[in-house]
Amino acid sequence: MFKRLIVDWAYFLNTSDAYQKKKLFFYNLLENSNYKYKKYFDLFMIILIFISVVILVREVKSHVDDSLLFFNNYIISIIFFIEYMLRLWVISSVTKVIIEQSEYDAMLGNEFQVLKPIKEITKVKVKYMLSVKAIIDLLAIIPFFHQLRLLRMFILFRVFKLFRYAKSIQTFTSVIAAKKFEFLTLLVFASIIVFVSSVLIYVMEANNPDSPIDTLFEALYWSIVTISTVGYGDITPTTEAGRTVAMFVIVAGIAVFSFTTSLIVTAFTEKLDEIKDLKLIDDIAKIKEFYLICGYENLSKEVAKKLSINNKVIILEEDPLKVEQATKDGFVALNHDPGSIDSYKKLRINVGTQVKAILCLSHSDVENVYTALTVRSFNKDVFILSILINKINRNKLNFAGVNELFYEKKLVGVIAKEFVGQPVAFEAIHALRSNYNGIDMQEIIINDRVLESFVTVGQLENKRYRVVLLGVYKKSKKRFFFNPFDSIVLEVGDYLLVIGNGQFIDEFSNYLHKKGSK
User: Fold this and answer.
1) Which CATH number fits domain 180-273: 3.40.50.970, 1.25.40.10, 3.40.50.2000, 1.10.287.70?
2) pTM above the 0.85 mark?
3) Mean pLDDT along residues 98-121
4) Domain 287-433 falls in which CATH fold?
């Protein structure tokens, strides 16, 4: 009974539009840098952080109004606590893990193993809680316990939360992290110098009554100040041996400082192109509509020139030399492989809404085929146009999902029509001639929830959702029934093979599980 309640609860939340919309909203607000409202949220949190620090500094020597203290110790802490819990919530999908385990066990005919999803969920949540950012978030909440004055100092940890909201700080951190091994080596070297010099200066100076160095702590303080090339002058060695040690420490400090500077400069130099690309990707993500040209050849240049008169054009090219040439020609170009799905993930663009059309203009039919197949693997609707180099590859390009094929000279003429009073609407052509209308094929597992309301195939009402039932796999008979009769009885572990629009299939699946829970 307890296991059934857990599964019912998971299905209820997973099929609840209100719940999913709320979770998506908070995920975008907290984690999605392209979400239009995130920058306002980040600005709000940065303001709260600075208010906390200002109040802390003011409180040291002056009286702070009780209402401000209440706002700082309670209201801001509660806001940060809510943010922490929301991040813990959206970091993973609990319901998805439970449903996947439930359906897997149902398919094998086993009893639902509730401990497995609980362990997996706990592992993910704990891993997040132990991350550096999550620990800083937690420490920033501690000032809520304001009765202990020492805990108020944890307000300073709120400053570290700026790393989460300020993108420039995140960029700097990522650049430094790229050289973490070198910086670790430098830290070890500097620590050894500090330790050795502290002991030496203490041995040389401690027995001298005129020397200001009387304790090992003072020696350590002097070593750190000297090796950092700060040199306050409040503590200086008085013996010749002590001054000799100081000279070596000064030289070592200059070496450490120079090495640190060169590491930072090198790290930024190596990451400069990547930083520029990230900035360019952020700018592209803000463009509402544009044409995506894959491959940069002479033809691409001509097509891009004509399209860019009234439209935005983005070029994807794997060859860095061609990317450089495209940039010199005045186009926005990125060094990404158009035939790799990772390239489109890095771009963070919505191909379905932002891209008006994808133009495969590489001088290789094979590359254009790979590009078309890659795009079709995650989007069935976007219009794809390709040039045809060798006519024997026409069928391959058509099978890959290309909507329109042109020879080079013909394509330039078609594009040119757009500027002589005969507009070419790729979207209109696509709507009329495309065979890719979001059609998808999926499997739907039959479990106890579904069987409560649907006993036979005829009761499924799949036609109501415009979903075609291709067949039913009967687990007990280990046989697939193509175009099954309405009288076929469903059993736990069977699965339905359906075809239709992806959104309609999701609605149909949600309907089966929702009705099954009643």
Assistant:
1) 1.10.287.70
2) no
3) 81
4) Rossmann fold (3.40.50)
